[in-house]
């Protein structure tokens, strides 16, 4: 894995910035989130969430919008914990 220069590591692409901006305000748009994702980005919601999850792990995203990125990280962490708890309870009852 190559190491980026500090300035390059903190840069976001235009698409990265648009994803973060969209995630902050998608709820105010008229259509469903999935339809808006397809219209605005031209890719599936699965691909969108893959990119979003990778993006919120970067320092550049954190520097761009710390409140949003920290909130998304907390949500992801709590969902992971819920899934783990469900899997564990399924193993115990089976």
Layout of helices and strands, plus pairs?
Elements: H1 6-9, H2 14-25, H3 33-41, H4 45-55, H5 59-64, H6 66-93
Short description:
This protein is mostly helical and 94 residues long. It has six helices and no strands.
Fold and architecture overview:
- With 94 residues, this protein is mostly helical.
- It has one domain (10-93).
- It has helices spanning 6-9, 14-25, 33-41, 45-55, 59-64, 66-93.
- Residues 1-5 have low confidence and may be disordered.
Fraction of residues in H or I helices: over 70%
Number of domains: 1
Distance between the first and last residues' Cα: 42 Å
Please state the average pLDDT score.
86
Uncertain runs with pLDDT below 50, 5 residues or more?
1-5
Task: Give descriptors for this structure.
94 residues; mainly alpha; globular
């Amino acid at each position: 894995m190559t190491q980026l220069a500090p300035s390059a590591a903190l840069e976001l692409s235009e698409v990265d910035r648009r994803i973060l901006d969209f995630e902050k305000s998608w709820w105010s748009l008229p259509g469903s989130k999935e339809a808006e994702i397809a219209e605005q980005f031209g890719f599936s919601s699965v691909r969108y969430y893959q990119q979003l999850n990778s993006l919120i792990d970067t320092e550049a995203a954190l520097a761009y919008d710390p409140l949003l990125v920290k909130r998304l990280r907390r949500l992801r962490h709590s969902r992971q914990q819920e899934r783990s708890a469900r899997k564990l309870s399924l193993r115990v009852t089976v």
